[in-house]
Specification:
alpha/beta; Peroxisomal Thiolase, Chain A, domain 1; four-stranded mixed beta sheet; 32% helix; binds coenzyme A
Length: 320
Amino acid sequence: MTTRIIGTGSYVPEQIVTNNDLAQIVETSDQWVRSRTGIGERRIATVEGTSQMAARAARRALEQAKVEPEAIDLILLGTSTPDYCFPSGACEIQGMIGAVNAVCYDISAACSGFVFALNTAHAFISSGIYKTALVIGSDVISKLIDWTDRSTCVLFGDGAGAVVVTADVKGIMGIHMRSDGKKGQVLTCGARTNGNFLLGKKPELGYMSMEGQEVFKFAVKRVPECIGQLLEETKVSAEAVRYFIIHQANYRIIESIAKRFKVDLEKFPVNMEFYGNTSSGSVPLLLDEMNRAGRLSRGDKVVLSGFGAGLTWGATLLEW
Ligand code: COA
């Protein structure tokens, strides 16, 4: 038995913030951001939190899968921006959608969060522990951003995507995940757990900080390496893959990965122009867009890949 995606859904907030809007608050330009990243605009949450966005994406995925919330055994939410320290976002979502029989928890792997959560659900399903799961990536990264820091504020946006997965004879063909905690400080954000009662230190809120070039170098090296290993393990060639759905951080990263595999860029769909980097939301958001546009056919081989803070990176190969 393996794990098959039987429904997808997504949600983005209504409010659009363009590069030109950001040029009003930091020294940047539409031309700079587009040429360096491929990003033109992003959605920013005003009233929605991570769990609310996730629940909306989840409802759409359940509706498409024709699965009732009560049939869900497991809810995994990939996020690094939960609305609360506790309860987990996944538990909140359970309450919102009425998935009363599910066990629920969050997975913290930043922009790899969705892929790590999907692979974790696959481990449970393929071992027979659970049958049907809801896997979600949702982040409101806008809340962690220092909006005076032009090197990070132009890159990110808010959004969520979800999939319903169930045990089936075809679906996930292989997974690969890696982490490198020694390089964690190149992309980091302080938590409010840095206070100390005995030392009389109050917690301080931290903003995201990033060494952009280090993250870029990491992504263009590790992502193709990871996908390459996955393809080797599953004995599938890059040419046989219909689509590579890669975390939407930067168009130049995607171009570099396509070049490495010597496959046409047409196999690398993108939507970062409209949403920026939505962290854990990015891969399922694009997957849902592709699915609803009818671009995925039964039997297509698809690679999903995420990478981000931790450092973390991983991939999933599946047959649609
Ligand atoms: N607008 C205009 N200029 C900017 C800018 C902005 N938004 N951000 C940075 N710059 C400036 C820098 O200050 C620097 O100026 P200087 O030469 O006078 O010092 C110049 O542009 C070049 O900066 P650099 O950091 O070398 O640019 P870059 O080509 O590496 O592009 C990133 C910067 C952030 C777009 C790129 O490094 C990147 O995409 N890294 C990966 C980030 C990522 O994907 N993070 C998420 C991973 S999940």
